[in-house]
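SEQUENCE-TO-STRUCTURE ENTRY
===========================
What this section holds: a protein sequence and its matching fold, both as plain text.
Tokens: labelled as protein backbone structure tokens, with as many entries as the chain has residues.
Question of interest: how does this chain fold, as expressed in backbone structure tokens?
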Amino acid sequence: MKDLSNTKFAVANIGSTVRIKIPDVDRGKGDPRSIIAVVLKLTDDGFYQLGCNDGVLKQLYSRSQFTVCSENLLAVEAVPNESITLRSAATAQSLGTGQGFFKCTCTKKCDTKRCVCRKKEVLCNSKCHNSLTCTNK
């Protein structure tokens, strides 16, 4: 099985730009489906240490967990020397708030900290409550 995997996925060189798929639970609906990273190191076991613009990813990756890009978009020197999880990297590169959207289901005026939107310091929107009066719009 290992020989079959090695023939299907060629070895990625250090400094190669790769694309890592972000699992659905780690990203929101409007967030990107993958992040761009660079190969930093190849371990003796055949695992890869990858880094992105926000830091070095904590997890080691096998060759089947990422795809190699044809262009080199990210340099090894551009990766900061701090550990970061894939979920944190996805949140940092997201345009939204990370894992997903939140909404409140208040039946009152959203004037206390019980309201999820007010607690997160975000205005209520049309997905929260339709035609109720709200002080957090």
Remarks:
- The CA atoms of residues 40 and 97 lie 28 Å apart.
- The beta strands are 17-21, 34-42, 48-52, 55-61, 66-68, 83-84.
- The longest strand covers residues 34-42.
- Helices lie at 2-8, 86-92, 116-119.
